[in-house]
Structures are given as C-alpha cells and as structure tokens.
Write a structure and sequence with these properties.
This protein is α/β, with parallel strands linked by helices. The chain is built from twelve helices and 20 strands. It binds N-(aminocarbonyl)-beta-alanine and zinc ion (ZN) (2 copies). N-(aminocarbonyl)-beta-alanine binds next to loops.
Amino acid sequence: MSYDLIIANGTVATAADTFTCDVGIRDGLIAALGHNLGAANRTIDASAKLVLPGGIDSHVHISQPSGEGIVMADDFASGTLSAAFGGNTTVMPFCMQERGVPLRQTLQEYHARAEGRCFTDVSFHLVISEPTEQVLGQDLPALIEDGYTSFKVFMTYEGLALDDYEMLQVMSVARETGALVMVHAENYDAIRFLTDRLERGGSIAPKFHGTSRPIPVEREATHRAISLAELIDVPVMIVHVSNREAMEEIARARSRGLKVYGETCPQYLVLTEKDMDGLNMEGAKYVCSPPPRDHASQIACWEGLRNGVFQTFSSDHCPFRYDDPAGKLNPKGRTSFRWVPNGIPGVETRLPILFSEGVGKGRISLNEFVALSATNHAKMYGLTSKGSIAVGMDADIAIWDPEREVTITQALLHHGSDYTPYEGIAVRGWPVTTIVRGRVVVSDGVLETQPGAGQHTARSRSAFARPAA
Ligand code: URP
Ligand code: ZN
Ligand code: ZN
C-alpha cells in the first residue's frame, strides 16, 4: 500500500510521548506510523527535525468589524497565511454577533469572507453580544447543534458587555446544549470610571490603557464569571488571563471541583506595561486587553502553563496596522488611549515564542508544548480529528527545526499588520514545514499552495464541557 506523503526520519512528539518513526499520510489522514513504510508520491526527510501536531490557535480575530473607521489588518487570506507560516494548521476566529442582524446571517457573512481564501483550516466560535429571546431560544441552540459548539461573552466593551443577568441567560443555554462558554473577564464599569478619571486629569497617552485596567478589574470579573457559572453549573473558559490574582480565582474554583479552565497568551509572557510607554504613540502598538502587566505576572503565567491552571496557549491575534488612520493611529483628533483599537498581532509568533522561551529554556517539556499548542485546544473545543499524531487523525503536522535561530522582525512575517509587538525577540526553534490534511502548505519556509487549501471544520461538543442537560 503506498502513501501520498511520508515524513521520514523525524522525531515525533505528541502530548503524551516522544518517539522516532516515519509518518505515512493518505487521503488527508495519518495512515501509518512506523519504519520502512514503503512507497510514497512524496517523501519529506525530517532528519534532525521535530514532527509535531500542527498548532491550533483557538483564539484569533480575523476580518472582524472593529468600530467606526477601524479596519482589522488581516482578512482570511493573510491571517491564515501568517498562521501557516507560524506552524499552525487550524485557527479559531470569532463570528461577532451584530446588533439587529440575525446570528445565522452574520455567520454566513463570515463564511463567505473565508470561503476559498484560507491556507489553514478554520472553525468559528460565536460571540453573543445581544442575547434576545430569539437568540437564546432559537438561533444559538440551533447553531450549537450545527457544530459551533463554543461562544464568547464579554464583560466589558461598549456594545458588547453583557450584564450579570444576561451572562446567566447565555450560560443557561450552554448548560442546556453542552456548549462551552468563553469569558472576557474585565469589569466594564470600573474601566469606564477609571478611564473618565484619567482623561479628566489629562492622562491620555497609550500607557494609561494599562492604568485604566489594573489587575483588580480582571480579578473581580474573573471571580464573578466563575460565580455565575457555578450558579448555572456550567463549565467556563476564562480567556486571555494576564496575572496571578485572576489565576488564583481559577485555581480556587477548580480546587472546589468546578469546571473552570484558563487560557493565556504570548503577550503575558514576554511583554510588560512598560512596552506601552513608548515615544509619542508608539506604545499603542502594545495596547490590548487585558493589558500586559509586569515581570511578576509573567512568572505567574509561566507557572500556570506548567501547573495546569491554563489548558490552552493562544495568540489572541487581533491585528491592526499602526501607522494607519484605520488602525492604531485612528483619526478625528482622538488622541486618548480610549480610542486606540485593542489588540495586537501574534498568530505567527505564538509557537516560536512558546517553544523557545518554554521548551528551550526548560520551563515546559516538549510534550507540554504540544498539549498547550494543539492537543488541549482540540479537546477543549471539540476538534475530534485534530491535535495529535495518531493513525486515523487528520494529517495536520508542523515540522520544526529545533535549532534554527531567528530574530523576530516584521519583515519576516506574513500578517497584514505593519509591525510586530515582538520585534527583536531572538528565538531558537522555528516551524519550517506546515501540512494541512496531508497537503504541504509551507515547505521549508516556502509557500506551496494557493488559498483555499484550508476549510471550515464543524465541531463536536468540548471534551471538557458537560453533556447537554
Ligand atoms: O485586546 C484584545 N484582546 N482584543 C481582542 C478582543 C478580545 O477581547 O479578545
Ligand atoms: Zn477578549
Ligand atoms: Zn481576543
């Protein structure tokens, strides 16, 4: 029996094991693991390389409407191209509910934007910002049934924030349907109060973005989200956690037996609030929410990756251009940090940073890297055919050169932003070849396919969620 592709002589690592074997791929699936597999249409020699499950980035924003006059820097072509060059084979963007528009219609619009343009697979989460009777009673349960088995809710941002009553309503739908709720945990009123006070005092530079969203803002909302989930008896995933106090809320809940999960991101490992204190508006390049904190918070987040507070490590790729009136330097005389669009690019740099700073510096093992970058995302969000290297799974694979030394710089990257917040960071270990369902998308750093190689993947229920009530 011959194969479409054999990856030969590599060191294969999964979340559980590391072993030397060849990988035989047929019809987009992993068909065999072993030695002397026989003939193939193509063989890739992976000597001295690591053969890992392709990265799954379960938190990215692509082609998302971002407010008046603001344009997100990535469409599905550039966003997934950048993802593929960063060793990812699946990304999970958000379909953001728009006020007054049927949820399914908005979802169809996102699908239309993605169709035929993707280099990696994609799978949408929903965002629920207006939980009407129609949404709660009809649209959301039907979409969950159709394989959109997770949705995000915001506790902050004008036009997006749900109040506690609404949080309980959407959590009840998740309880009934077995969906997973992702929570952006920051206290909206506290941020509004602090922002108004800072502006009145003339404190408007980008660095005050951090001052307007201090740790208690995140800790309190994390605690409240967990308490609300406990009332409904539903699992929750607290996304983009930035600091120890929020982590302690998660850990305490888990020690009481609650199904509370956590995600952190590269910005909380390698950036700090000082980065927002650049000359003129340069600090805007680092404005995201929650904001990067301090060195102690970085250490805490590393601990959380090691000790299981965090199941997933995502980029929260939310790309805007810097030197652009439709981006970070938005016009209309809006000079306050209040108007800087929140979010930074990072889908291409997520894995090299985790590999180099984590595996390379002995903070996490290679198997933990695989779990945090791929396997746990697949289990958390019901991507049952993805996230591992095993016979019968999708042949989603990234081949890494663990010795390649790279200095991250904008010129190297493929996203639509005109900067990277990780400029100048030196890493060792880089994904050189990316294979999506058996198709070689990037081969030794060279693009090999047209857009359209990636497709949308409907999902099962989360392995971490409760079964539908
Ligand atoms: O600043 C951020 N994180 N922007 C992206 C939107 C979100 O809250 O995830
Ligand atoms: Zn968020
Ligand atoms: Zn996000």
